[in-house]
Amino acid sequence: MKHVNVEQVQKKMGSRLFANTFAKTLFLLATLFGLVVLVVLIYRVIQDGAAWINFDFLTNKLSTDPERAGIMGAILGTLWLMAVVAPVTMVLGVGTAIYLEEYAKKGRIQSIIQTNISNLAGVPSVVFGLLGLTVFARGMELGNVVLAGGLTMALLVLPVVVVSSQEAIRAVPQFLREASFGMGATKWQTVKNVVLPASLPGILTGTILALSRAIGETAPLVVLGIPALLIPLPDSIFDKFTILPVQIYYWTLDSALVAEYTNLAAATILILLIVLFVMNSVAILIRNKFQKRY
Amino acid sequence: MTVLTGKANAKTNNLSASTGSETENKKIVYNTKDLNLWYGEDHALKNINLPIHENEVTAIIGPSGCGKSTYIKTLNRMVEMIPIVRISGEILYRERNIFDKNFQVEDLRTRVGMVFQKPNPFPKSIYENVAYGPKIHGIRDKKILDEIVEKSLKGAAIWNEVKDRLNENAYGLSGGQQQRLCIARALAIEPDVILMDEPTSALDPISTLKVEELVQELKKDFSIIIVTHNMQQAARISDKTAFFLSGEVIEFAETDKIFSTPSDKRTEDYITGRFG
């Protein structure tokens, strides 16, 4: 006797097909929800801010008069901040990744370090702000200048750079290392000539994505006490500074006092989004261009 | 080709399993004495004793998992890249123990080149692949590098195929060409011994034939140790053959003898295809 009864199957066919369509619709709605919210957000921001973006807005200094206020200070501050964050995270992050992947003996200690790095990536950014305030701004008496902010941000994104660099290094096939060692190369020669060139695209992609996260972070710098006051344009890493998201934050806070601040904040958001979009595109381009098949 | 090593003089070795009078006059390059190797608890090589003579092709045959690849990787200490490996006994290379603290592993690997199972060129140009070894050993002079590259590619019988595209990426070559490029890359460090770990297992029959012919050429200047799971290949190209089984050397003798009148029953069973 057969176990699959054709009549039974046909009777249940309707409800099975309904469940199938229902599931598909549910997942489509889930996808659309995020997309719709994003579109609405961008639409509102463009509506509020697009008209305010012009040459003066980009090149003027901060001012209490909305008509004369510009974001030159925040743009320069962001650039200076990157000038600290980029080299510090590259050196520390890639160095750590190379050590963990190529030199460290696989064992308990290595796995403890590994777990901690992964956990560090999940620590809230405001905690890093407190760390920066305690160690760099007060402990090392740097004050709330670019260097202190940059080091804080570097620590914040370091775990991301370490983990993504590790993944890039791990993706370098073992047989390439063997070929190099087989000719009498030292570890460092192998890392320098074989492993790093092969993993560089992955490392760069990870680093750029980490930097774009640093550009968008607000909390650590607010904790660090980045001034909302009118300050001179920063000229070095030892100057006080502000950055785009902090500028957005303070304008939004004060928008109850001056209505036009809402528009200034929206315009700044647009600039920030464009910068992030460009950075992420570059990261994706690098990844696609250098993707190698072994 | 220049031999970079010292001029160690081998005396007649009583461990030699060979019988030919021609062989006894040849120097020993590698002498393995009571070698044992463990992967963790797994005893992979058991009391290996094996003298290997210069300017000969020594084939190592045996079924999968018999330890033949492990053994050849021990000869240039590549096996130590696996962290759980433990070794006892000694391997004398030109009468120096390769496990001696004063014998730098980089030094050993400069004298002993290796060709791997799967062609593994670097994702660099053909030229850069061959120049890699000389460069890491400090040769910067472009003229000398050009000369080494040409000589090595000619030595590996691939010069005519690639001389017009030295700056193209090595990944554009066919599998067989890539493997000969890897042989050229090994020749570029002017080694004394070339270790080959199943160098034709990933190649088609025509490419395999080319590599086999090349091995015959190379033995004039180098000592070659080749692991193969292809018994016909061992019979075709080697002077001596060692038969490995479960981590032990069952029989080591002239290739002719192994394939015509093996003295051990297990060798006979294996070469006649009764197992393996």
From TrEMBL, chain A:
CDD domains: TM_PBP2 (cd06261). Residues 75-283 form the ABC transmembrane type-1 domain. GO terms for cellular component: plasma membrane. SUPFAM superfamilies: MetI-like. It comes from the Bacteria. The chain crosses the membrane at residues 21-46, 71-100, 120-139, 145-163, 194-215, 264-286. It is a multi-pass membrane protein. It is found in: Cell membrane. This is Phosphate transport system permease protein PstA. It comes from Mesobacillus campisalis. It holds the Pfam family BPD_transp_1. PROSITE patterns: ABC_TM1. The keyword Secreted does not apply. Coiled coil: none annotated. Its main location: membrane. Keywords: Cell membrane, Membrane, Transmembrane, Transmembrane helix, Transport. GO terms for molecular function: phosphate transmembrane transporter activity. Belongs to the binding-protein-dependent transport system permease family. CysTW subfamily. GO terms for biological process: phosphate ion transmembrane transport. NCBIfam families: 3a0107s02c.
From TrEMBL, chain B:
This is Phosphate ABC transporter ATP-binding protein. It holds the Pfam family ABC_tran. InterPro entries: AAA+_ATPase (IPR003593), ABC_transporter-like_ATP-bd (IPR003439), ABC_transporter-like_CS (IPR017871), P-loop_NTPase (IPR027417), PstB-like (IPR005670). Residues 30-271 form the ABC transporter domain. Gene3D superfamilies: P-loop containing nucleotide triphosphate hydrolases. One of its GO terms (biological process) is phosphate ion transmembrane transport. PROSITE patterns: ABC_TRANSPORTER_1, ABC_TRANSPORTER_2. SUPFAM superfamilies: P-loop containing nucleoside triphosphate hydrolases. Residues 10-22 have a biased composition (Polar residues).
